[in-house]
Write the structure tokens for this entry.
Amino acid sequence: MSAQPYDVVVVGGGNAALSAALTARASGASVVVLESAPRHFRGGNSRHTRNLRVAHDAPTDVLAGAYGEDEFWSDLLRVSGSTNETLARLVIGQSKGCPDWMRRYGVRFQGAPRGTLHLGRTNAFFLGGGKALMNSYYAAADRMGVEVLYDAQVEQMEMEGGRFTAAVTRARDQARVVRGRAVVLASGGFESNIAWLREAWGPAADNFIIRGTPFNTGRVLRLMLDAGAQPVGDAKACHAVAVDARAPRFDGGIVTRLDSVPLGIVVNALGQRFSDEGEDFWPRRYAIWGSLIAQQPGQIAYSIIDSKVVGRFMPSVFPPLVAASIRELAGAIGVPAEALDATIDTLNRAVRPGTFDHQALDDCRTEGLNPPKTHWAQAIDTPPFRAYPLRPGITFTYLGLTVNERAQVMMSDGAPAENIYAAGEIMAGNILRRGYVAGVGMTIGTVFGRIAGEGAAGHADV
Amino acid sequence: MTVCNSCRYCEQYCPVFPAMERRLTFSDADLAYLANLCHNCGECLYACQYAPPHEFGIDVPRTLAELRLLSYEEDCWPRPLAQAFRRQGRSTAIALALGFTAILFAASALLNPAALLSGRSDADFYAVVPHGVMVGLFGAVGGFVLLALGWSVRGFWRRLSPEGSPPLTARAVGRAVGDALTLRHLHASGPDCVSAEEVRSPWRRWSHHATLGGFFLCFASTSVAAIYHGVFGWEAPHAYTSLPVVLGTAGGLGLVAGPAGQWWQRRRRDPALADPAQQGLDESLLLLLWLTSVTGLLLLVLRTQPIMGPLLLIHLGVVLALFVTLPYGKFVHGLYRLAALVKDAAERAASDSV
């Protein structure tokens, strides 16, 4: 630790953290990255991501068609409801330069797809996904002389007169004081801190599955809130989807999601339906199913389909429970057989004739059913029947630190902390209050990581 | 495989993942196909969020390497020799080469002792081993090798192509041969393949090119020499500037540099990318190719020296060892992979036209 104090201390090890570290190092600052995970699990939730959302006026080699800033803005507003417009517009405007900037550090992208119907128009996909992205960033950091400490969990933030002076980390029971002229907080949310989730959700939190890293404990977020930083967002606000209940408690990532919901029905542990499974295309709706299931008894639900729709959704990693009759299936999943039988029977009688098309908002709907199923409603009558157990899967949380457009953390007295910056999930709540648009988290992380890195490097002793 | 198929982040690295996505379930034949389509570039291990020590413990390059070996054994002809794949190693390669050399020495000592010991300086190979004997011996061994390889690959291909498979077209075959010769999928996602996380280098690819090119040139050299002998009556030894010697020398140099380069690359590659059980299988082929070319080149340079006779027998012993292990060693990977590439090209053509 001869280089102390560092010009810039970066807390965290994901996309936002490395964007800040690389930017600060490129401006000549000495930089240390404190990553709480061991090397193999470095990268926070970024290791589970796949793309970032980028505004662009014309097709590029990695993006199809055009995606204007205004369209990006309205997509964001539609899901979030409210936002900090200045910060959101900043992210959208600067998203344009992100792919080229990322490439400078060895990041590779997939080629632009041919069609313009899907995510390839709005999102640039990392070749190999987020872990490959993080590998490129860490290799670049190594080449450039950024120091990276793994297993380095920050336990204390030392401040003097509102200024950051040092972070106290603990790695393998060794406390270590890392001093710096500025700090970038990019340590993610608190979704893997079950005790904190329980404060917001009650005992239901014990049945949540955490899709990402177990290292997002929110420790630094809590330290800053206790030190008088201005919070943003609600503790209960999170991105929670329906995942297979058999997923590992942490780090199951993308393969635990289940896309069968709109093709059948979803029942709770009592064998009853509780929401319209066919309200809209699954990618637009799946983000609400996490909270829907969180409100059901035992936080468990079952997606039930018949053999007609097998092969019409992305294969899932866990095999379905299969049975020749509905009653047998009820036994397999442990819900009351009479209740499930009645639910299916009621559905089958409520289904109106229509032309089934799982790729369009078709006209297959129910009549007189409560709750209704407004699209893709078909009788569940063709054995064998299949069930997938579902639980809420939390992707990330929105409660965070308020920042200004220079990425400085705002304190409760309304003034920015001079040398404390924040980027990524820890401040994404400024822009997203609820809901989610695919890839925007990585855009926020990259844009604010760069802004924070630039600002923090400005405190360097030159 | 089910983890890969519900993740799909790797789909643009190489054709293995799109081929996976064209299937919902995987038969043994599908797995053999995917395994042989893989060129072991290694990218997907480092990109995988489920790679060890994650509890899912996904290591696609190693898993496919293990499946490749199973596919070599499954389609091996004659079947009882399938166990040879697991016995290949540096010591068996050397033992075979020494054994064949010893037999040749013994036969010469019994049948033609004068030629071996006379210290000839006229480079007359056929005085040591008569032309008829050489043609007969290598013709018989070569014929068996071709039969065994052909029958094995036929079995593999039939397994890969059940009823209803996309039709085979000349275009698909052409594309597959092009892909095989350029090793396109070894670096499908960029200029080079990886030897460790974020470490990419062209040397593995160039070494393989040198080995394969050297092999073809040596084959061409032998073929030209056979035509010279049979059609024109021009017998060996040929001048340094003659076509067979020029081809053979170039090929020999390729087969010295190529296998040595591949050996060196293997040693510095991340072991997680390979199946440790196959080290002997891989290295025995490299060793025999290298010994063949080294003894061949020595023979060329020293052919007018008294040591020519013994050297010729050593070279022939090594070549015999190489030949008999071809159908039961790493050599088969080229043919199986070519078959997998043909199938992939046919499948892609069929799905593009839908």
In short: Residues 131-160 of chain B form the longest helix (30 residues). The beta strands of chain B are 193-196, 199-201.
